[in-house]
Amino acid sequence: MMKIIQSLFLSVIAFYIPLQGILVAVGAAIALDTCTGIYKSFKTNKPIYSRRFADIILKMLIYELVILMIYTIDYFLLSEFFKLWFSVGYFFTKACAMVLIFTEMISIKENIEEAHNINILKQLQNVLKRTHDLKKDILDLTDINHGSNNSQPY
């Protein structure tokens, strides 16, 4: 009987082996979100409750189980259908994992913004504007060196 249970367990593990990278990526996103949440709590002097850690463990478990269930559905039902449209294996599983990771990335961004009292999108817009201005200045300088009469360089 023990041999049968062991064989069944190893079969289930072998079935889910292709998900290893996706599960690690989702788990890493949750861990990074947790770290930035703790960092935000220290920076804003807010207390950290042990109940929140239980919520994190529950979230990790739920996210990982969702990925496992979606993979099973994808493997038996959707895989061939999606391969007709997209030449990517297990497209639905990967898309759902990306949604979960993107959700965590938004939370990470919010934690960093609150910890440092900044708006990352505004900062990025400013950097892009400065880059555009720098490009314009460089083009103006090169136009001065080559003359403005559109003559060919030597």
Number of strands: 0
**End-to-end CA span:** 87 Å
Q: What structural class do you assign from the helix and strand content?
A: mainly alpha
The biggest sheet amounts to: none
Count the DSSP helices.
5
Choose one word for the global shape: flat
Please report which band the strand proportion falls in: under 5%, 5-15%, 15-25%, 25-35%, 35-45% or over 45%: under 5%
What portion of residues is helical? over 70%
Unreliable sequence segments: none
What number is the mean pLDDT? 89
How would you name the oligomeric state of the polypeptide chains in this document? single chain
- How large, in whole angstroms, is the Cα Rg? 25 Å
Could you give the order of the helices and strands?
HHHHH
3D architecture notes:
- The protein is mostly helical and 154 residues long.
- The chain is built from five helices and no strands.
- Helix 2 runs antiparallel to helix 3, helix 2 runs parallel beside helix 4 and helix 3 (50-85) runs antiparallel to helix 4.
- The protein starts with a helix and ends in an 8-residue tail after the last helix.
